[in-house]
Amino acid sequence: MNKKKLPLDFYRREDVLAISRELLGKVLFTNLDDGRKEGPITTAGVIIETEAYRAPEDKASHAYNDRRTKRTEVMFAAGGVSYVYLCYGIHSLFNVVTGPKDTAHAVLVRAIHPIIGIEHMLKRRNQNTLKSNLTSGPGVLSNALGINTFHNSTDLTGADIWIEDHGYVISSKDIIATPRIGIAYAKEYVDLPWRFVLKNYENISKSATYTEDSMSYKPSKV
DNA sequence: CCAGGGATGGACT
DNA sequence: GTCCATCCCTGGT
């Protein structure tokens, strides 16, 4: 199989909507030690749900109107680093910073399909058996992968967090575009179809309410 | 310093 | 399907 780490020029393109679509089917890896002496453990999953955030005009973006604060500064970096922030005081949400320097575009990864290190992801989630909710949301997938706000501004071509192309071919008819979740405050940006979901997976985030015959996928055994 | 918010999750029926 | 606890951190002062 053709597997390769996505290069910086993948992330540094201008079109965050295209990048959001293209991230579907790519494989998000972490190799983190959670502070354990034993060293890092590799965990990974196929990206199956993303959302695009396109500052400066996007009112749903934390960097709306090119608002630069200590928190948002990393979004203005050149693409290929993480933006991890705390939501509801509990959940670490993992974003991929995209675009050239000073363009505050980002992609929120909302769900993955777990494929590598599932046993360890279960431990991090305090679960015993694989269910469809292991990585089915932006907060829980970070938890399963060991990502927290400490990993903000991490180089996505480094050894801790990265994304690989495993050669999965995704056609546009395999992608459902819908409005983004949890951005009711964003006025005229509320209804834009900037959320992208890969069909055939059941473990997308909970707020996804569409049902289709294609939603018959079951996670493979551990 | 501190009021208010928040790209949610999970418990429950 | 519905409901609501969550609590740290941001950002303006």
Structural overview:
The chain is an alpha+beta fold and 222 residues long. It is built from 4 helices and 9 strands, in the order βααβββββααβββ. Strands 1, 2, 3, 4, 5, 6, 7, 8 and 9 form a 9-stranded antiparallel β-sheet that branches. A hairpin with a 6-residue loop joins strand 5 and strand 6. The longest helix is centred in the N-terminal third of the chain and has 8 residues. It is globular and about 45 Å long. The C terminus is likely disordered. The structure holds a DNA duplex (13 and 13 nucleotides).
Radius of gyration, taken over Cα atoms and rounded to an integer in Å:
16 Å
Order of helices and strands: EHHEEEEEHHEEE
Count every helix, treating DSSP H or I runs of 4 or more residues as helices: 4
Number of strands: 9
Terminal Cα span = 21 Å
Low-confidence stretches: 208-222
Query: Helical amount among residues, as a percent range?
Result: 10-25%
Shape assignment: globular
Helical/strand content category: alpha+beta
- Kindly report the average pLDDT value: 89
Largest sheet, strands/sense/barrel: 9 strands, antiparallel
The proportion of strand residues reads 25-35%
